[in-house]
Amino acid sequence: MLTLNQRLSQQQRLSPQQIQYQKLLQLNNLALEQRIKTELEINPLLVEEMELDTEQEDKDKETESETETEVDSAEESDKSDEEFTLEDFMNDDELDHEKLNRSNDEEVFHPIAPQRTSLYEHLREQLMVLDLDDNLYMLGEEIIGNLDADGYMKRNLAEIVNELELFEHVKIDMKDAEELLKKIQKFDPIGIASRTLQECLIVQLQEAKADEYYKYIAVKILEDYYDEFTKRRFDIIKKKMKLTDDTLKEALDLIQKMNPKPGEGSIDIVEMIQVTPDFIVEKVNDSWIITLNDKSMPSITIDKKYLEMFDANKRKKRSDREKATYKFLREKFESAKWFIACIQQRRDTLMKIMRAILEMQYEFFEKGPKYLKPMIYKDIADIIGMDISTISRVVNGKYVQSPQGIHELKYFFSEGLSTDTGEEVSNKHIRERVKEIIESENKKAPYSDEKIAKMLQAEGIHVARRTIAKYREMLKIPVARLRKENI
Q1: Which helix (H) or strand (E) holds 450?
Q2: Measured between alpha carbons, how far apart are the two ends of the chain, in Å?
Q3: Between the chain's N and C termini, which has fewer beta carbons within 10 Å?
Q4: How many CB atoms lie within 10 A of CB 21?
Q5: Given this model, what pLDDT does residue 31 score?
Q6: According to the model, what pLDDT value does residue 267 have?
Q7: Per DSSP, which regions of 3-118 are E strands?
Q8: Is the bond preceding 44 in cis, omega lying within 30 degrees of 0?
Q9: Would you say 177 and 195 are in contact if contact means Cβ atoms under 8 Å apart?
Q10: How far is the CA of 117 from the CAs of 152, 268, 370, in angstroms?
């Protein structure tokens, strides 16, 4: 049997404006700049303030030109007989060149960024110098095109040769293919297109300018005792090769000078990832100043011409067409008004959160990472009176530049650990302490994770061995056996 019941309840719903604000809050400055430009394209009522200033300047210039027309016409007759010299033309050219390369408010040149050469193009230029037939040249391009970010050829050479024969009907002998690969491996940078780290280091050693004896010993170590070398079992190598400590040290030092990633470095192989800080924190005299890094952000406002049109349609008795125009302008006006308000609200929220972080992590900005305090999202939410989800949206993907470097805002949030003195210590502080202990250890007898844990316990910080191992892995520091050096 169907029944009807009446029930009173409260529900929380987000308005479209609140949803828009939450979305803008998640964007960093670069993404927000693109969002503003998109809004400028779809909403005709929005306009950049710079454009309005330019229009006003053009009107002022037109007025000035009208008033000066009579004076100029009187002077033209006197100047018509004058001749220009070569020096005049040269000076004019210099002035025009300055105008092209200078902005209105600066007196400095803006140099053009140099063109970047990709690794593929750099290697292809060297390949073209070799006297190769069409088939080998095609194979060389395939080899270069199959390199990874570190400059290694991860694909099997036989597979590449077989594919050329199958799809391009190009048959190449494997012996010729191996010879071509060895030639490419001697291109700049040396060791490029190697298949393994072992092969990469051997190629670089063979071409290195060093003592021939130590080069021979170093190559021999890599060829015959590579497994012992990677596991840093230098005592076994010394015993089997019957080397002195000095000879072994010279050979190992020579190997360590080689580049394990020849594709990484001076030549660009992928787009450079650039981090633009959203905040700049700097100390002026004895005070810390927070600046929102939004100087490149377009400054937008509502176009006055459309506001006048909006008011005109609002007052008069409208036809169907005028009603449609008024409805369109009203919708776009409300959208523009809320968009501008959301941007300002986002700015205020970001500054509140950054001020709270500076207040909580004051010692970090003053003294460095060792003084980072434990802090969670709730701590900031309680200070500024906002929800934890809002803090999470702001923190994610935002960066701050300070005297301590550039850090993501999430860096300042970490769990704490109580010491014997009752003081709360951040896990990032413990990580820094682990790094300091390892850097100061005796390289002939490096500390194990168990030993580091005991050293921290002596300082009142109680952490387990597995926790030390986890922090060491996060710092990308190898185990004690691999840190051992033969000195």
Answers
A1: helix 449-458
A2: 90
A3: N
A4: 20
A5: 85
A6: 46
A7: 46-48
A8: no
A9: no
A10: 18, 6, 41
Task: State pTM to two decimals.
Answer: 0.54
Q: What is the Cα 168 distance to its own chain's centre?
A: 40
pLDDT value of position 115: 53
One-letter amino acid for residue 210 of the chain: A
User: CA–CA distance from 327 to each of 306, 307, 317, 323, 340 (Å)?
Assistant: 13, 13, 14, 6, 20
Count of all residues that appear for the chain in the document: 487
Q: How far is CA 334 from the centre of its chain?
A: 37
Query: Could you tell me which residues come within 8 angstroms of residue 109 by beta carbon, excluding any fewer than 6 positions away?
Result: 101, 102
Are residues 400 and 456 in contact, defined by beta-carbon separation less than 8 angstroms? no
Low-confidence ranges of the chain (pLDDT < 70): 1, 12, 14, 50-117, 265-274, 313-318, 418, 420-423, 486-487
Q: How far apart are CA 478 and CA 439, in angstroms?
A: 12
* Cα–Cα nearest to 482, from 439, 441, 455, 443: 443
Contact present, 232 and 120 (Cβ < 8 Å): no
Helix H, strand E, coil C: the string for 94-130 is: HHHHHHHHCCCCCCCCCCCCCCCCEHHHHHHHHHHHC
> What DSSP assignment string belongs to 266-304?
SSBSSPPP-PPPSEEEEEETTEEEEEE--TTSPPEEE-H
Cα dihedral sign for 336, 341, 344, 346? negative
Residue 269, Cα to own-chain centre: how many angstroms? 15
Helices (H), 316-419: 320-360, 362-367, 377-384, 388-395
Q: How far from the centroid of its chain's Cα atoms is residue 278's Cα? A: 13
The C-alpha atoms of residue 204 and residue 186 are separated, in whole angstroms, by 8
Long-range residue pairs from 113-118, CB within 8 A, at least 24 positions apart, any chain: 116/268, 117/267, 117/268, 118/267, 118/268, 118/269
Cα–Cα distance, 462 to 478 (Å, whole number): 22
Say what the pLDDT of residue 16 is. Answer: 75
Angle made by CA atoms 364, 366, 370, in degrees to the nearest 5: 40
| Distance, CA of 369 to CA of 417 (rounded, Å) | 16
